[in-house]
Amino acid sequence: MPIKDVFLPLVGQPRGPALAAIEKCVSVAADLGARITALALEEELFVRPKVLLPDDPDAAEAKGAAGAGDMQRLLDAFTGAASRANIRAQSRSGKVPADQIAPILAEHARFSDLTLVPVKPHDSRTEHIIETFLFESGRPLLLCPEEHVEVLRPEFENVMIAWDHSARAARAVGDAMPILQAAASVRVVTVADDKTDEIVQSGTSLVEHLREHGVYASFETTKGGGSSIGKVLGSWANSNAIDAIVMGAYHHSRLNEIVWGGVTKTVIGQPPCWVMISH
């Protein structure tokens, strides 16, 4: 199924990298030929009313701060990016209790083919939102690492499938099929110190399946060498000029425990490039 409707949650402070990530996410949606919907949410706070006289300089300052709120700046960045990309776009905003931000965003994500998520490195709030999306939206995510935003390309020419033989990895491959079909190069990679017959057969079977969908992929393994599997994948992606990684999230089978490790936590905490992830 083609990706025609994407969702962009807007949360947090409008710092430079965050605004650049919005621009890149809109560019990806434009490259996919999709409509993009943004939802900006901020925490609803109770502020004790303060009486200000008309001539009080604090009144003007308060008015200016209210007019230049973080949420509005994020929305303005989105509107500008969508206009420059000449893409069909719509946006909404709201203030909700802090503990409702992630569930509300996940609920809205259910009505899109793909959710684009700007990711601040090692940010607990962002990680919580991503995990809520994974378990409650039923849709794939495309993570945009803010720390690498300047070098990210909106076109995914070189794609890596992080393959661990799991049902969730298979789900991720299915979700990413439009991106895989458009890529110039697709490489299936399994991290394993021992290249067993089971691992080789699994990778070969995936390559054969992809070929039926017009995707001509290669399969290979790379050694973990005692390092975090997530870090191994990130290093491999960087060394091979990978634009995007496709992977499943949070596995629990015996094979996954042996081969995969805690890769999801590592990757969502600090994505090395674009990462399309499904659960």
Account of the 3D structure:
- The protein has 279 residues and is of the alpha/beta class.
- The chain folds into two domains: 147 residues, Rossmann fold; 121 residues, HUPs (Rossmann fold).
- Helices cover 43% and strands 22% of the residues.
- It contains eleven helices and ten strands.
- It has a ten-stranded mixed beta sheet, with helices on both faces.
- Helix 8 links the parallel strand 7 and strand 8.
- The longest helix is centred in the first third of the chain and has 17 residues.
- It is globular and about 55 Å long.
- The two termini are 18 Å apart.
- About 7% of the residues have low confidence.
Could you provide a short overview of the structure?
The chain has 279 residues and is an alpha/beta fold.
Architecture blueprint of SSEs:
Layout: E1 5-10, H1 16-32, E2 35-43, H2 57-67, H3 70-85, E3 89-96, H4 101-109, E4 114-119, H5 124-136, E5 141-145, E6 158-162, H6 167-175, H7 177-182, E7 185-191, H8 197-211, E8 217-222, H9 229-239, E9 244-248, H10 254-259, H11 263-269, E10 274-278
Parallel strand pairs: 1-2, 1-4, 2-3, 4-5, 6-7, 6-9, 7-8, 9-10
Antiparallel strand pairs: 5-10
Helix pairs in contact: 1-3, 4-5, 9-11
